[in-house]
Amino acid sequence: MTRHVLPASWDARLAGYEWYRDGAGESGGVIHRLTRAGAPSLYLKHGTDAVAAAIVDEAVRLRWLQGRVPAARPVAFADEDGAAWLLTIGVAGRTGDAWLDHDSALLPVIVAAFAGFLTQLHALPVDDCPFEAGAALRLAAARRRVGAGEVDVEDFADDHLGWDAERMLAHTEALYDPDLHQRVVTHGDFSLGNLLMDERGHVTGCIDVGLLGVADPYQDIAILCANLGELDPAAERAFLDAIGVASPDRQRMAFHRCLDELF
Prior knowledge:
CATH topology of the largest domain: Aminoglycoside 3'-phosphotransferase, Chain: A, domain 2
Number of strands: 10
CATH superfamily of the largest domain: Aminoglycoside phosphotransferase (APH), C-terminal lobe
Order of helices and strands: EEEHEEEHHHHEEEEHHH
Distance between the termini: 26 Å
Helix content: 25-40%
Number of domains: 2
Structural class: alpha+beta
Largest sheet: 5 strands, antiparallel
Radius of gyration: 19 Å
CATH architecture of the largest domain: Alpha-Beta Complex
Strand order of the largest sheet: 1-2-3-5-4
CATH class of the largest domain: Alpha Beta
């Protein structure tokens, strides 16, 4: 992305910054890290059409999160002519997966940090959260994605390899039981790459919150457990113990894991 595609009012704001393309994330947007001597690093996310809509979702949720849990801080946002730009201050520390790449022995520290953050997030008052993200809404969106051919079946987990999108959708729907679901404030994509911390396990902020909203707690639990289970089943068990889930609901776990495959 070059400077000329910025909203005109941002030229002065970003004068003097060096731009570096950041390949992190899977949202489809273009992300740049911006640096300037004597100033904090900034991150600029840009996209058009469906990606722009996702950036809008993220921007309003980041604003809402400020002062509630550690989160990236937005400093500017624009949405015009089918495009969106979100500028945030860089969050200190590293993501969970980046820390693991640096030192795999930090896994227990990472598990504790993620468990502590999720407990804090899920304890936020549901009535204060203006965003709905429940399973019924997500299933409706999944049906639209399947109908439009937007599901990447090549990205399915190993136990779903070879499945087509229609089979995955039918399997997911068969697992859904609305009577089992609860309501808490969820991150929506609570993976090892979406929470930053320092090496002592102090959480410095969450990122990629475009799916945040009121939903079943297993929306978050299932995604992180899938991450941890691939690394070490003992780490998954430690995480569940840390958040107070002695006997996980395997049906809800499977439902949310399969639902996530469709996005």
